[in-house]
Amino acid sequence: MARSQRPASRLGTDIPQNIFVLDNGAYTIKAGFSQSENTSDADTLQACDTIPNCIVRSRERKAYVATRSDEVTQWSEAVFRRPIENGQLVNWEAEKEIWDYSMFDEKTASKKTFVRNPADTTLMFAESPNTMPALQKNADEVIMEEWGFGGYMRTAGPSLNAYNDLHPIFEDAEAPKAQSSLANLPMECLLVIDSGYSYTTVTPCFEGRPIHRAIRRLDFGGKHLTNLLKETISIRHFDLHQDTKIVNDIKEDVAFVSRNLKADLERVWKGNKKAKAYSLSSDTMDVDGQQADVRRDYVLPDGVNLTRGYARSHDPSKDAEKKRKLAVSHPESNEIVMTLGNERFVVPEVLFNPADIGSKQPGLADCVIQSLSKLPPLVQATMVANTIVVGGNASIPGFVERLQDDLRTRVKVEWPVRVRKMEDSVTSTWLGGARLACNHRGVVQRYAVTKAQYDENGSAWLARHFATTR
Hints:
alpha+beta; Nucleotidyltransferase, domain 5; six-stranded mixed beta sheet; 15 helices
């Protein structure tokens, strides 16, 4: 096709203007097309779809791909097949099946994520920081050769958060508001803590680019918390070793991070009878709006009348205790209830003190200090004052406050410590990528490559290109 005949819907001369942003998380995929300029974040997020990144085999031996897992009603003994292990995409056979179902099959893909013609689309692919080169090469080859995207940009996922409008969440209430023109500019210095399903990373970013030498990783994530909770419940209450999804729901419903572990343990030990009211001034937190009671009753699903469990206030009465004992001995005749106490906060404590389960890894706050030590002192102070937490674990109540407390005791007194999170920490990375795509087209054009360039130069050239640009 002659140059004068090329479609007008392209950036520059080669890169397709239709940009598809894909945050390929281990637990869920966040995907959708970027919107036009001057679109609000709320409207932009409407274009994002969250897709389970797994294939589920139920106890009836039926397979459910991606969003079809919503059809599962009996989660007991369900088996999950996940393409990503330890934060690395290692199973492209399963990932291709999930992508085809969710994004390239018009019959099964949603309107938000259906890619009708990859050749007219630029893919912005968010990967884990410091992904192994061999796995990066595999991803590049599959994406460009299997689907043939017209444009392709691979970048470290945490760095995309710098393009979000973060100035409001870091400003003090009394401070003057930042100019609206700053909203579209990336944060000059930003420390991104991504605590997801498989791991937790600490990524310092300067003007939207990750500082690779300072990236640190903690090999604990939501999966490990779920497994630890599963072991704890199986020992103390019911055997849930085969019920990973149910335990994960329990974690999401009742877990919280304690700001004062000793005090919360004492509250549970005393049976909460004489617990004092907690407040921020006493270095504790209000959980569930019930300051005097840590324990919660959790009703397990039966797969028939109740497909998802739920938490409720703990009932310490003798009648309630009799019902709980009856449920253990005759689960078919009553609702299945268990009382959770210190399990609620001891399990998430592993992220901050891995030594509690015998691990020699440093805690999250110590990982941050290790990362900062690789930066100049002046930059360290700025980073610790601009720290954002993203990923599923950031949604655990008390996570942000506890991290800020721990950092406060580890840095200089004169350094301000500000740890914040977006309203939706799960889609924060995708939103940053969408804002980059619509507000900084020149950046995308500079970093992305075309299908023709890939065909001409190959995957080795592509790896060098992304290594030197992002």
